[in-house]
Amino acid sequence: MQELAAVKLEVKKSRFYAHLYAIDSPDDLAGILALHRERYRKAAHHCTALRFGAPSGTVELSRNDGEVGTPGRALLAVLDKHALDRHALVVSRIFGGIKLGPGGVTRAFRDAGEGAVSSGE
């Protein structure tokens, strides 16, 4: 695994830390999540998306990690939109005290993911 980009986005006092990784296998995701849980200890949620093309077909995974809305699916859509294969996108959120609602949370995660992809290209 190799980190390609990292960005920070702040929305209504919540901080979103997005990281884009090039991966060698879908199994790399466990190590990436362990790293994020250590790096962002105050984060309640670490939403993820992964796309990995293989001869047997493309593996696509997303995880909301208990967050409201569908941030994992939004991150997967970012990877798909940019045709990123063999990549993982992880966004950790540190809650700032203001609820964003399901739509606002999903948009914030998507925007943070787009920022990481844009700076990694």
Automatic annotation (TrEMBL):
Superkingdom of this protein's organism: Archaea
Gene Ontology biological process: regulation of translational initiation
Matches recorded under PANTHER family: IMPACT FAMILY MEMBER YIGZ, IMPACT-RELATED
Any one GO cellular component localisation term in the record: cytoplasm
Family per record: Belongs to the IMPACT family.
Domain Impact N-terminal: 12-115
Pfam families: Impact_N
Cited Gene3D superfamilies: Impact, N-terminal domain
Protein name, UniProt field: Uncharacterized protein family UPF0029, Impact
